[in-house]
């Protein structure tokens, strides 16, 4: 038996190898003893496994596989149910052993026999569960089938489908209620009222129309105009929030404890623990605002769509999202968002190498490639003061902080979470942002997200709003 265990199992079964060994022994005995009957037996014993092997290679059965995930996308640490339906689409064979191929993070691949005991209509159905602790897109499958000839002498294993992609989205953390949203109505909208001189009543009232309820009659305006006047409905606007998600490789250095998922055997996302913290923050903040009926706009640090390079995005060019469908699109876009761009500071190397005489050329390169540029500012100015502005950024240089600082003037309130792990100029960066009107909080990959979010209320939102108004009135940004 020890010898049989050492023989390769992808060609013949133990029975097939046994016949081959017996055939070889019979051939040896026929040669030594000169027996023709032993020679005939030897040829038969050797040919049977070889013919069976050729048969399963040429006449391999075909199957159809239908795979369904429920839910179709799953949050990290959530469970999805995988349902498989396998049907034979060629000639019948005996029992087939099948195995669903999985990335290593999901554990041992499930194996099952076809046809199943509960098969109906020629289709066998199977079910198992998956859970992932990390976001991303993972190929589930293919199903591999291992079948043998009718005599059970040879084996054949091959993939019978291409597999399907499972999208694992980041799970949102429930955030405490803060003063970020400002004054809000019960339905999540902001009431607006236009006031003007000489009389606000004239602006807030209109002539009575048939069907208007009498409770809306404005008696003071009626007496002044000599005809029935009613109060107008307050106009309402859906508040907007803009979120800037920094995705630059250089802004999120791999510090202590940071592991690039691109080095994992079952994922090729370029990320690390610092960036993963920001992705979770983006998911949590957008979910928090979406629950309060905010429409959301997500941009990267260069003014482009936040999910322009995300393989999981349903619409990579989309910038604006609203409602439950928009939140789901954000979650799917964040599933495979990753760090991008150059992996070293090109401009700093350029300046160090060429010196100040190349200042003009370096400036043009900075204008084209540097973050928080004019394109981003133009995008922000198009929605000026329509709602809060939030920036989730990595390590900033002083120049980058100065470039981002004026953006505070485009939001009704401006909030920034700044990753300071591995940075040497945290204090100066935060001071630049705060003096410009940002409510900035320093975070690391170990900072509880709820604590960072609550920090925006510490000291009062009013201080940040007042600073922002100073910027809008022309206060200088520190250089």
Shape: elongated
How do the strands of the widest beta sheet line up side by side?
17-16-15-18-19-20
CA distance, first residue to last residue: 81 Å
The major beta sheet can be summarized as: 6 strands, mixed
Low-confidence stretches: 182-201, 346-368, 459-479
Average residue pLDDT: 81
Q: Rg, please?
A: 34 Å
**Percent of residues in beta strands:** 15-25%
* Count of β-strands: 20
The number of helical elements comes to 14
Please identify the structural class as seen in this structure.
alpha/beta
Percentage of residues in helical conformation: 25-40%
Structure commentary:
The chain has 479 residues and is of the alpha/beta class. 32% of the residues lie in helices and 22% in strands. The C terminus is likely disordered. The chain has a 6-stranded mixed sheet with strand order 17-16-15-18-19-20, sandwiched between helices.
List strands and helices in order, with pairings:
Blueprint: H1 2-6, H2 14-33, H3 36-58, E1 63-70, E2 73-75, E3 79-88, E4 96-100, E5 111-114, E6 123-131, E7 136-140, E8 143-148, E9 155-159, E10 164-169, E11 190-192, H4 200-204, E12 205-207, H5 219-225, E13 229-231, E14 235-237, E15 240-245, H6 273-290, E16 295-300, E17 320-321, H7 323-335, H8 346-354, H9 359-369, H10 374-381, E18 389-393, H11 398-404, E19 414-419, H12 426-435, E20 439-443, H13 449-454, H14 461-472
Parallel strand pairs: 2-10, 15-16, 15-18, 18-19, 19-20
Antiparallel strand pairs: 1-3, 3-6, 4-5, 4-8, 7-10, 8-9, 11-14, 12-13, 16-17
């Amino acid at each position: 038996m020890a010898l049989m265990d050492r023989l390769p199992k992808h060609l013949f079964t133990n029975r097939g190898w046994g016949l081959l060994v017996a055939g070889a022994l019979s051939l040896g005995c026929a040669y030594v003893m000169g027996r023709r009957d032993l020679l005939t037996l030897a040829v038969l014993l050797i040919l049977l496994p070889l013919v069976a092997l050729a048969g399963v290679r040429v006449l391999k059965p075909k199957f159809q596989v239908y795979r369904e995930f429920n839910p179709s996308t799953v949050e990290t640490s959530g469970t999805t149910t995988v349902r498989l339906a396998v049907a034979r689409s060629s000639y019948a064979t005996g029992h087939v052993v099948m195995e669903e191929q999985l990335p290593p993070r999901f554990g041992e691949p499930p194996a099952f026999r076809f046809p199943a005991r509960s098969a109906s209509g020629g289709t066998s159905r199977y079910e198992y569960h998956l859970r992932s602790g990390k976001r991303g897109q993972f190929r589930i499958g293919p199903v591999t089938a291992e079948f043998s000839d009718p005599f059970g002498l040879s084996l054949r294993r091959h993939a019978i489908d291409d597999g399907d992609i499972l999208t694992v989205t980041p799970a949102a953390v429930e955030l405490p209620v803060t003063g970020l949203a400002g004054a809000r109505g019960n339905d999540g909208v902001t009431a607006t009222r236009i006031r003007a001189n000489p009389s606000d009543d004239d602006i807030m009232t209109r002539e009575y129309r048939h069907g208007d309820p009498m409770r809306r009659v404005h008696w003071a305006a009626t007496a002044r105009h000599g005809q029935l006047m009613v109060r107008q409905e307050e106009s309402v606007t859906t508040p907007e929030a803009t979120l800037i998600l920094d995705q630059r490789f250089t802004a999120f250095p791999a510090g202590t404890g940071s592991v690039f998922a691109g080095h994992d055997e079952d994922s090729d996302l370029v990320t690390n623990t610092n960036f993963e913290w920001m992705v979770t923050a983006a998911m949590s903040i957008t979910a928090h605002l979406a629950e309060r009926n905010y429409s959301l706009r997500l941009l990267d640090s260069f003014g482009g769509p936040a999910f322009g390079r995300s393989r999981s995005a349903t619409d990579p060019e989309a910038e604006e999202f609203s409602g439950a469908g928009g939140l789901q699109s954000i979650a799917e876009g964040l599933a495979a968002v990753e760090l991008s761009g150059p992996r070293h500071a090109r401009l700093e190397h350029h300046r160090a190498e060429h010196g100040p005489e190349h200042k003009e050329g370096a400036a043009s390169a900075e204008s084209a490639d540097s973050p928080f540029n004019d394109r981003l500012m133009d995008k922000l100015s198009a929605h000026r003061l329509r709602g809060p502005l939030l920036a989730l950024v990595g390590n900033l240089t002083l120049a980058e902080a100065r470039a981002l600082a004026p953006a505070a003037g485009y939001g009704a309130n401006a909030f920034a979470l700044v990753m300071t792990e591995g940075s040497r100029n945290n204090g100066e960066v935060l001071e630049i942002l705060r003096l410009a009107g940002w409510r900035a909080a320093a975070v690391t990959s170990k900072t509880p997200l709820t604590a960072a979010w609550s920090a925006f209320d510490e000291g009062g939102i009013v201080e940040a709003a007042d600073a922002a108004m100073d910027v809008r009135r022309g206060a200088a940004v520190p250089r």
